Amino acid sequence: MDEEFIDTISFFLGLIFTEIHKFKHKKMSATELNLFDKHFSMASRKRILETKGNPIKRTKTEPSSDSVESSKECFAFNKVDSSEKKIFSNKYIYILPAGIEKMRINIFKNQITKCGGTIYEQFDSTVLNTLSFIIVDDKMDTNRMCKLLHLESYPTVPVVKSSWLSSCLREKKILPFEPYLLRIVESHNDSTDNHLKSSTKATSPGPSQLQTFLNKNKISDSNSNYSSSDEEKEAGIKPVIEALTNSKVKPEKWICAQSSKNPKPNFNTNITDMLEEMAKTYESTNDKWRAFGYQKAIKAIRNYPKPITSWEEAKSLPGVGGRLADKIWEIAQSGELRKLKEFESCEMTQVLKLFTNVWGAGPQTALAWYQQGLRTIDDLKQKAHLTSQQKVGVRLYDELLDRMPREEAGEIEKVVREAAESIQEGIIAQACGSYRRGKATCGDVDVLVTHPDGKSHKGIFFKLITKLKESGFLTDDLVSVEQTGNQKKYLGVCKLEGPNRKHRRLDIIVVPYSEYGCALVYFTGSAHFNRSLRHLCKTQNMSLNEHALKIGVVRKGADKIYEGTIVQTPTEESVFEALKIPYRPPEERDH
Ligand SMILES: Nc1ccn([C@H]2C[C@H](O)[C@@H](COP(=O)(O)OP(=O)(O)OP(=O)(O)O)O2)c(=O)n1
Ligand SMILES: [Mn+2]
C-alpha cells in the first residue's frame, strides 16, 4: 500500500476514534426483567420444539484441539474439563462479529461448541426462529445491530452482550441476561414512544410481543449516540473529515514541531506500559486498527502533563474512547488490567507473540504455525516449513531480538565504511536510524552509502557485499538486493570479530548522491518523524520519500493526479528549508 495512503487512513482513523463516545447504561427494573426472562424462556422452549426436524442448515464449528486448549487458559477453564459442563446444549447461537476481536470470536466459538452449543456461521432472517440468542459486542446498540442483521425491528430472541458470554464461560453456568441485554434505543428527547418508532423503524405489521412489552415499559438504552442512524452518522463524521481534508497545516503547527530532546516527563508510565503490551498483543494477532488505536492513545497519555485521576480525564484525551477510558481507569485505580492478564495467561496470545518475533514471520504465518500445533521456537526448528529468512530468524532468534549498545553499532558502521573506502575512495558510509538519532541502544544498523561525485556509487553495492561476506563479517542474507528506483538495499546479519560477539541485523543502502539528502532524512527517521513530515508535505502540495522532495503535487483524495516536480535537495538542511521548517538535528527527531 502507498505510504501516503496509510498515513491518511491512520490520520482519519485516529480522528474517528476521538469522535466515539460512551454513554452510561440504564438498568432494567426487576419486574421488567422477570417479564423479559419469562418471554424468552417461553420463546426458546417453543423454538426447540419447532426446530425438531427443521431442515435449516447449521454449521458446527470444529473445535480444533489447540484453540480449545488456548481458550481453556484464556477463560481459566482448568481443573474441571469444560466438556463436562454442557451449559450450552440445545442452544443455537449467532455471534455478530462487529466490534469483537477476531481472536475472541474464535475462542467463543470453540468454547460454545465444547459446551454443547451450536454456532451459526451465517445469519439471515430465516434462522431467527431457531436461534436461542444473539451475542453482540458490549458497545453495540440496537439500531446498529438491526442494520447489520438487516432486521426491521428488535428480534424476538435475546440479544446479549459478549461480556455475558465471557461470564457464563468463566462460571460454567448460564447466568441471567440482566444486565447484559441489548435494549431498544431511546431518544434524548422526552417523547420516548415517538423515538422508539423511528429508531427501531417499527414497520413490522402488528408489533411482536417483545416490542409491545418494550414499548409499554419504555426500556431505554445506553449507547444511543455511538452509532445511530446512517444519516446521523454521516452528518457527524463527514464534515470533520472534509474540514480536515481541506485544512492547511501551517509549518509551525506541524505534528513534530517540538524537538524530541528533553522530552516531557511521562506521569502515567504504569498506564502506558500496560497499554504498550496490549498494542503489541494486537499487532501479533493482526488486529492492526486496534493496535493503532492503542498507539494513538499511548501518545496522548505520554503527553498528558499530570497523573490521570479520573475516568473523565482519561476519556477527554484525544484517541481515547469509552472502552479505552475504562481500561486506563482500571490501571489507574488498581494498578492492573484484567484484559492484559487474560492475554498473558492465554497460551495462543503468548505463542503468537513469540512467533511474530521471528524475522520474516508476520501474524498470519504465526497463526498458521499455531494452528499446526507448534508452540515453541524448537517446534519451529524441527517441524515447521520455513522460508530461508525464517530459518535465519529462528536460528538466531534471541540474538536478533536483542538491542545492541550504540558503541557496537558504531563499530559495525566502521567496518562497513572501511570496506567501502577500500573499494572506492571518497565514498560516504553513514549509520542512520536510531544510531544517528543518538539512541543508547539500536535494534539494527542502517548504513547509507553514497559518493559525492554522483556516479561512483554505481557498481559499489555488489563489490561491498561480496567483500564483507568474504571477510566473514556478513554471516547471513535476509534480502540480497532490494531495488527501489536508483537505490539498492541489502538486508542481512553481521557479526564483529572477537569473543562474546552477537549476530546483529545490518541494512546497507546504496543511493545516488542526488538522492542523498532525502535518503538521509528518511533512514534517520524516526518512522513517526517521517510520517509527520509527509503529513506536513501534503498540506503544502508537496511529497517526500527516501528518493526526492516534490512540489506542485496535485491530489484528489488519496490519489495523486499530478506527481509534481523534484526540488534539488543535496543536503538534509535543504530538505528542511524546502519544507519551510527549521533544521532539526538527528537527535531531536526521536519522536
Ligand atoms: N515503516 C518505516 C520503517 C522505517 N522507516 C525509516 C525510519 C527509521 O528510523 C529508519 C530505520 O528503520 P529501523 O526499523 O531500523 O528503525 P530505527 O533505526 O529507527 O530503530 P531501531 O533501533 O529499532 O532499528 O527507516 C520509516 O520511515 N518507516
Ligand atoms: Mn535501525
UniProtKB/TrEMBL annotation:
Catalytic activity from the UniProt record: DNA(n) + a 2'-deoxyribonucleoside 5'-triphosphate = DNA(n+1) + diphosphate
EC number per UniProt: 2.7.7.7
Residue segments, region Disordered: 192-212
Active site: K327 (nucleophile)
Cellular component, GO, one term: nucleus
InterPro entries from the UniProt entry: BRCT_dom (IPR001357), BRCT_dom_sf (IPR036420), DNA-dir_DNA_pol_X (IPR002054), DNA_pol-X_BS (IPR019843), DNA_pol_B_palm_palm (IPR028207), DNA_pol_lambd_fingers_domain (IPR018944), DNA_pol_lamdba_lyase_dom_sf (IPR027421), DNA_Pol_thumb_sf (IPR037160)
Assigned keywords, A-Z: DNA damage, DNA repair, DNA replication, DNA synthesis, DNA-binding, DNA-directed DNA polymerase, Lyase, Metal-binding, Nucleotidyltransferase, Nucleus, Transferase
Signal peptide bounds: none
Pfam families linked: BRCT_2, DNA_pol_B_palm, DNA_pol_B_thumb, DNA_pol_lambd_f, HHH_8
Major localization class: nucleus
Any one GO biological process: DNA replication
Polar residues: bias regions: 197-212
Positions of the BRCT domain: 83-182
A GO MF term: metal ion binding
Cofactor(s) the protein needs: Mn(2+)
Location(s), subcellular: Nucleus
Function summary: DNA polymerase that functions in several pathways of DNA repair. Involved in base excision repair (BER) responsible for repair of lesions that give rise to abasic (AP) sites in DNA. Also contributes to DNA double-strand break repair by non-homologous end joining and homologous recombination. Has both template-dependent and template-independent (terminal transferase) DNA polymerase activities. Has also a 5'-deoxyribose-5-phosphate lyase (dRP lyase) activity.
UniProt record similarity statement: Belongs to the DNA polymerase type-X family.
Name of the featured protein: DNA polymerase
Name of the gene: LOC106077133
